[in-house]
Specification:
It comes from Tenacibaculum jejuense. Keywords: Membrane, Transmembrane, Transmembrane helix. This is Lipoprotein SmpA/OmlA domain-containing protein. With about 150 residues, this protein is α+β, with helices and mostly antiparallel strands. The chain folds into 2 domains: about 55 residues; about 80 residues, 2-Layer Sandwich (Beta-lactamase Inhibitory Protein, Chain:B, domain 1), CATH 3.30.1450. Helices cover about 50% and strands about 20% of the residues. It contains 5 helices and 4 strands, in the order H-H-H-H-H-E-E-E-E. The protein has a 4-stranded antiparallel beta sheet, with helices on one face. A hairpin with a 2-residue loop joins strand 1 and strand 2. The longest helix has 27 residues.
């Protein structure tokens, strides 16, 4: 996180410095000024977007029961696989508990919720939850959200 802040501060300082320098220089054409200001702004915005992308990237892996049971705070890496491949859809409550285990899980009415850790992101401060919704003890929906 500190690296991103440093990159952003340096980008702003360099952009402001070059824009001031450019404005104080008497160039022959306003086109050069506009081009330079546009280019420096583009570089600044590009570096900000690149920094956000780097900070929010995380590897996605296929569901693995052993990893799910041992790496509770890294479960978010497998949650997309569980949702997209519909691994739990159609399973009973007992089958879900047998597959995903009882570590860091909660049961509320017709929902089973598993803590999956913090998904890397710029403003992610709360842990994320994998929510398994049941109807008549059968899984009908699986979603993920920030708690």
């Amino acid at each position: 996180m500190i690296y991103i802040i440093i990159i952003l501060i340096l980008s702003v300082i360099l952009s402001l410095k070059y824009n001031k320098t450019l404005l104080s220089i008497n160039l022959k054409s306003k086109v050069y000024k506009i081009t330079f200001i546009s280019f420096s702004t583009l570089v600044l915005v590009g570096s900000i977007l690149f920094s956000v992308y780097i900070y929010s990237y995380y590897p996605r892996i296929s569901f693995n029961k052993k990893v799910w049971d041992t790496e509770v705070l890294e479960r978010y890496q497998m949650s997309r696989d569980i949702i997209e491949k519909k691994i739990l859809i159609g399973k009973s409550k007992q089958e879900v508990i047998q597959l995903l285990g009882t570590k860091e899980f909660y049961v509320f009415n017709n929902k089973i919720m598993y803590t999956i850790g913090h998904i890397p992101g710029l403003f992610n401060i709360d842990p994320n939850i994998l929510c398994v919704e049941l109807e008549n003890n059968i899984v009908v929906r699986v979603s993920q959200y920030e708690s």
